C-alpha cells in the first residue's frame, strides 16, 4: 500500500480524491478545467505527438484530454493502484472511461522510477499536478529527474509539469 486513498463528497456536485488526506483531484469545474489544459497544451505544442507518458493519473481528466488527440500510445505511471481503481469506478464524469481506451497502458510504479528504468522514448512527458511539498513528491522536481525525462524524449519532445497550489 502506498497511500490511504479516499473519495469524499464535499458538495452534491464535488467529489474530492484524496491521498493521505490531501486533495489530488476531483470533480470541481476548476479541477476539470486544469486537467484539460494539462492534457491539451503540451500536445498542441508538439508538432506530431504519438507517444505520451503521463505520470500521476489522479481522476483521469488529463489522460482523457490527451486521448482526444490522435496519439498512438498513452503510458500512465501511477504509484497507487487504488487511485486507478477508484477513478475508474467513480470518476467517469471526469475521465470518460479512458482506461478502457486501447491506446492506454497503466503501469503501477513510481513516476521517477519508471522514467529511470524504462528504455522507451516519448514525444510528450507530463506530470499531473503532483505538489512538491507533500512527502515523496520532491523527487519529481529535481534536476536529476528532469535530466532523466530529457533522456526519455524523442527529438522535439515536450515535458509539461503541472502544479496546482492550494492555500
Mind explaining what this structure looks like?
- Helix 1 (29-45) runs parallel beside helix 2.
- This protein has 167 residues and is α/β, with parallel strands linked by helices.
- The relative contact order is 0.18.
- The model has no long low-confidence stretch (mean pLDDT 87).
- The chain is built from 6 helices and 8 strands, in the order βββαβαβααβαβαβ.
- It has helices spanning 29-45, 61-67, 81-90, 92-95, 111-117, 143-151; strands at residues 5-11, 14-19, 22-26, 51-55, 73-78, 104-108, 122-127, 153-161.
- Helices cover 32% and strands 29% of the residues.
- A 5-stranded parallel beta sheet has the order 6-5-4-7-8. A 3-stranded antiparallel beta sheet has the order 1-2-3, covered by helices on one side.
Distinctive features:
three-stranded antiparallel β-sheet; alpha/beta; globular; 167 residues; 29% strand
What's the short story on this structure?
The protein has 167 residues and is α/β, with parallel strands linked by helices.
Amino acid at each position: 500500500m502506498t497511500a490511504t486513498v479516499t473519495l469524499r463528497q464535499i458538495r452534491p456536485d464535488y467529489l474530492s480524491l484524496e491521498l493521505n488526506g490531501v486533495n489530488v483531484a476531483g470533480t470541481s469545474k476548476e479541477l476539470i478545467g486544469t486537467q484539460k489544459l494539462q492534457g491539451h497544451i503540451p500536445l498542441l505544442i508538439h508538432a506530431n505527438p504519438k507517444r505520451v507518458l503521463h505520470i500521476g493519473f489522479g481522476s483521469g481528466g488529463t489522460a482523457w484530454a490527451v486521448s482526444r488527440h490522435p496519439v498512438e500510445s498513452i503510458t500512465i505511471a501511477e504509484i497507487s493502484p487504488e487511485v486507478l481503481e477508484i477513478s475508474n469506478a467513480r470518476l467517469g464524469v471526469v475521465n470518460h472511461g479512458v482506461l478502457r481506451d486501447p491506446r492506454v497502458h497503466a503501469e503501477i510504479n513510481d513516476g521517477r522510477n519508471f522514467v529511470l528504468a524504462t528504455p522507451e522514448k516519448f514525444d510528450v512527458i507530463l506530470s499531473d499536478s503532483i505538489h512538491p511539498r507533500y512527502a515523496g513528491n520532491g523527487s519529481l522536481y529535481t534536476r536529476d529527474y528532469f535530466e532523466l525525462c530529457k533522456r526519455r524524449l524523442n527529438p522535439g519532445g515536450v515535458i509539461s509539469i503541472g502544479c496546482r497550489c492550494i492555500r
